[in-house]
Amino acid sequence: MAIDPKKHEMPVQEPSVRAHNFSEVALGYSEETARAEAARCLNCKNRPCVEGCPVNIRIPDFIALVKTGDFEGAYDVITEASSLPAICGRVCPQETQCESKCTLGIRFEPVGIGRLERYVADRHNEQAAEKKTPAEPNGHKVAVIGSGPSGLTCAGALAKKGYKVTVFEALHKAGGVLVYGIPEFRLPKAIVAKEIEGLQELGVTIATNVIIGRTLTVDELFEEEGFEAVFIGSGAGLPSFMHIPGESLKGVYSANEFLTRSNLMKAYEDLPDTPIMKGGKVVVVGGGNVAMDAARTALRLGAEKVAIVYRRSMEELPARREEVEHAEEEGIEFDLLMNPVEILGYQDPEDPRNEKNGFVTAIRCIRMELGEPDERGRRRPVEIPGSEFTMEADTVIMAIGTTPNPLIRNTTEGIVFNRRGGIETDEWGRSSRPGVFAGGDAVTGAATVISAMGAGKKAAEAIDRYLMGEDIE
Amino acid sequence: MYRILKKRSLNPTVTEMWIEAPLVARKAKAGQFIILRVDGDGERIPLTVAETRPEDGAVRIIFQIVGATTFKLNEKHEGEYLADFAGPLGEATKLDGLHKVIVAGGGVGSAIALPVARALKEAGAEVVSVIGFRSKDLLILEDEFRAVSDRLIITTDDGSYGLHGNVTAPIKELLEKETFDRIITIGPLIMMKFVVAAAKPFGVPVTVSMNPVMIDGTGMCGGCRLTLHEEDGPVVRFACVDGPDFDGYKVDFDEAMSRNRMYMPFERRAYEETCNLFRKEA
Predict the structure, then answer these.
(1) pTM of the entire structure?
(2) pLDDT tens track for A22-50
(3) Domain A15-127 in CATH: superfamily?
(4) How far is A16 from chain B (nearest CA, A)?
(5) Which DSSP state fits A471?
(6) A229-232 and A252-254 beta bridge pairing
(7) Which residues from chain A sit within 8 angstroms of residue B23, using beta carbons?
(8) Could you say which of A4, A322, A339, B6 is the most buried, measured as most Cβ atoms within 10 Å of its Cβ?
(9) Residue A1: pLDDT above 70?
(10) Which ranges of A308-448 does DSSP label H, i.e. alpha helix?
């Protein structure tokens, strides 16, 4: 039987329909499609996909089980390595990880590994699974700071070994970036809620409204609360701005604020308690997944036009490929090779009390060209002198990254931070202070869900060995 | 869930509550704030801590009914619960090395100025409190201020109590006669702006307490950003993690006032709808 050169297509909501709702875009494979897609795997000897996976899931083995219809077996293989498969199947950038290494991909499209992972996880979750039972307690207490992907993973791995784990979350709801950052249409919140329920069944305590560094300090966790180890997964933190004129005008948001208002505070509802600017012309600055999420959220909130402004070209755009394609299909405009230099606002020359004063009206950009490669090998964008022009805008969303949150840095002794404010750790997530471990964006700066998850898992292993008095190497 | 231990109306639009939140009560210092949500779908609003009783696990908040959320908060009774109450957030007001201070509060901002005055008094400083209100019936906390101040000056815009006018005139008068280490002022942006302007000719340092729009309050959303004019140019700071206290001479008040009005039409509508809803239920 000849191999199908293309991946089986992912059924999706029609672009014209989904542009007006917050339901999930990708609908998932059917059993038949999943098994047919699994049959495309060559089951090659050198298994390069496993190397491409940040947590080294035994990909060909789970795919082989999908092919034979043993979906629970496939689920077990995935969860040996990954604790959040329904999430990673949706949000991993497979095209730069596992699928980029796929042998089939040399001649054809690679196997749809992410889609298969999602199918297996969703199928498992749909079945009325038995309640998880907590492991036999081993008498040790561990604190996890932050309930995002690294914290949840670390907590889950430790709970399974019998540790009494408390996850401290600053916000009123657990899930971190999975709930405040990634929108419903890309990652339904019910999936995140299910993962968190699963952890609670394992005996993990989730303490919301506790800001470590304020409500309690790391030292108090050790000295007063009796924790023997602490994992810091506090995430990326403060949004970056460009420091151009007009960034404090009304209608300029950080992507974090815009997405939090919509995702966490449900500002998309008809009569929300939390406001958000809806409609009009929206410009999103940046080219990552967060920029795509913000742009597509703005569209769904009723924008008449949404444009992404990115200073490099499509080739360098760092967002997950599928999200870029979905955004294009939905009618998001990509204004590439340009960079904002100023945001302009309204000012009534006659009436200083006019309510429209101080709101964004336009954004001024300069065109860019690609010059020499920088230290990471990406061609550096260079301004083309005299090429400035003005685009109309009612809302401008800055999605250009974040810098680590200062709260723990400012209130904790004995932890070494790097130049960018991230926590220094070794490959096991050990910080410079004994008993304090860290992972995810708090260490690396803005990165992916899967790498944060991998770090949480590795740190859980390190914490276990540390508390059991075993050598790490 | 966080229980409302006590509720009392201070004037027709200002209410005081004691909330059971032991972790916050243990930690909060003068100048810090909390973020609360009234109910499960509610908005997150920041309120400054007015007082704590760590031994009872209680935190005192004083708020003015200005919008939908504070309206709903005011509808809650003793024994009922708030969905969320997180803190303390922000940096505490820096009081070290201050020996003689003017504490200037305006309107409900006086409730926030009170713990600062109290902390200064406890630290042995000489405290002159100047608090201003629109009229006598809006005056709050007079006795408590008197108890923690060496001198208390009250002003009302309409002259119905104390000095006629706003707080800047008596502040100027004080500065003309005496030397103060610092002015700490908390109140409406426009009032703080004028206090800064009044203090400038005397070169006395002014601390202002900023209350911008916030969501998380932990340094994640950036909604509370404001501009400080430093010597080498403007810098962006976040009120939630860098503040809420800032050097009054550096804050861009006009920008802050403009940003605070961003959602005004929405807030007006939400307030009216909420009032109507409660009226129908009543």
Answers:
(1) 0.92
(2) 999 999 999 999 999 999 999 999 999 99
(3) Alpha-helical ferredoxin (1.10.1060.10)
(4) 29
(5) -
(6) unpaired
(7) 210, 215-216
(8) A322
(9) no
(10) 321-329, 406-411, 441-444
